[in-house]
UniProtKB/TrEMBL annotation:
Ranges for domain DUF2059: 107-148
Compositionally skewed regions (Low complexity) per UniProt: 179-195
Source organism per UniProt: Variovorax guangxiensis
Protein name: DUF2059 domain-containing protein
InterPro entries: DUF2059 (IPR018637)
Superkingdom, natural source: Bacteria
Length: 195
């Protein structure tokens, strides 16, 4: 009789554990679905960041190597190519991120949050209050950034200008309209010794 009770208890505990795991897995799945806009945003940032060096180099090239009358047209053509890339790359990166999230983020959520915490997270992230806060967040960041830049500019700008001059000097580039310093020359090759 004790063996039967023990077996029933074991089966009940196993079933309870499986149900808890299924409930937790369901909550993680819901949480990932609620986080989909954040995953989309991350993918967009990755794609946009990938083109930043190309845009910077292209802008520098336009300003230094292209006649002024051709810059606008060539700039628009280059911008069209970048936009085409972004439109092609974003869905690829987004879809892969959404595919990977359950196997990468899901286990971390399951390990670090209990079922009640996952329920709270899903409720909070799905709430109108969170939506309102998320919608306001860019304004909050912008307000802080604007005030921060205004307050530190008098201190940081002279340091940035000094850095610009120091880097230019280190590279032998012109500084404030002055000619570039002569680059260190290589030692002259010695003529073969006469016998």
């Amino acid at each position: 009789m004790k063996k039967i009770k023990l077996a029933v208890l074991t089966v009940a505990l196993a079933a309870s554990s499986i149900a808890m795991a299924q409930d937790k897995a369901t909550l993680v799945k819901q949480l990932l679905e609620v986080q989909r806009p954040a995953i989309d945003g991350m993918a967009r940032i990755l794609v946009n960041d990938s083109v930043a060096p190309i845009l910077q180099a292209g802008g520098e090239y336009l300003q230094t190597q292209v006649p002024a009358e051709k810059r606008e047209a060539l700039g628009k053509a280059a911008e069209a190519e970048v936009q085409k890339y972004v439109q092609e790359a974003f869905p690829i990166v987004r879809d892969k991120a959404l595919q990977l999230a359950p196997s990468t983020v899901g286990p971390l959520l399951e390990q670090n949050f209990n079922e009640d915490e996952l329920k709270q997270l899903v409720a909070w992230l799905s709430s109108p209050l969170n939506k309102k806060f998320s919608d306001l967040n860019p304004q909050l960041g912008s307000a802080l950034t604007q005030k921060l830049v205004a307050d530190v500019r008098p201190t940081i700008d002279p340091k940035l200008q000094a850095l610009n001059v120091s880097v230019a000097k280190a590279l032998g580039a012109p500084t404030n309209g002055q000619p570039a310093a002569a680059a260190p020359s290589k030692p002259a090759a010695k003529a073969p010794a006469k016998k």
